[in-house]
Amino acid sequence: KDIRIGDTVLIQRAGDVIPEVVMVILDKRQKNSIPYLLPDICPICKHNVYRSEDEVVARCQNMECLAQVKGRIEHFASKRALDIDGLGSKVVSQLIESGLVYSFADLFCLAKEQLAELERMGDLSAQNLIDAIDTSKETTLARFIYGLGIRNVGEHVADVLARKYRSLDVLMDSTAEELEAVDEVGPIVAESIV
């Protein structure tokens, strides 16, 4: 659609909530506008970026990219997932940069003393975060599945999966064919889960 920074666009509602850009209003475009080019290389880890023909988003292909790790942990701790109060973007960044956290599991191994050493984190804040992490261990299967950040699995599909499988082990043992038999799970979602 040749959308450029500073363009005026016509938006319409698509689906329930998601806005869709219908078109650029060309007579309002600035004369010196430059086409936007998606990067070929991730600005964080310098690995290749891939954009599927059927998707708008471009993705870094390096699962160990620190930006991806940070995003996954932020999603896992978010209000709609495990709801770990006090584990916001800045704290997650500090945990990753200090080498204390690299995966979801690492969160559950943190000690109060480790947290207290972080910038702007005293004993009380560290204890509050430890308590919030402990509280998050008691969650629903649906919230946990959603928190894993499986591509194409939002809150609704996570709930459908939790009601159907009732245990993470059973879900993990499912084949793509078994998953596709679940109402509201198609081949793309099934493959993402597998």
Can you walk me through this structure?
- The structure is a single chain.
- 41% of the residues lie in helices and 8% in strands.
- By secondary structure, the protein is mainly alpha-helical.
- The strands form two sheets. Strands 1-2 form a two-stranded antiparallel sheet. The protein has a two-stranded antiparallel ribbon with strand order 3-4.
- A hairpin with an 8-residue loop joins strand 3 (49-50) and strand 4.
- Helix 1 crosses helix 2 and helix 6 (141-147) packs across helix 7.
- The relative contact order is 0.08.
Regions with pLDDT < 50 over 5+ consecutive residues?
none
Structural class: mainly alpha
Continuous helix count: 10
> C-alpha Rg, in Å?
21 Å
Largest beta-sheet details: 2 strands, antiparallel
User: What is the rounded distance between the termini?
Assistant: 34 Å
Estimate the mean pLDDT confidence: 94
Instruction: Provide the β-strand percentage band.
Output: 5-15%
Short structural summary:
The chain has helices at residues 66-77, 89-97, 104-107, 112-116, 123-136, 141-147, 155-165, 168-172, 176-180, 187-193, and strands at residues 9-13, 19-24, 49-50, 59-60. With 194 residues, it is mainly alpha-helical.
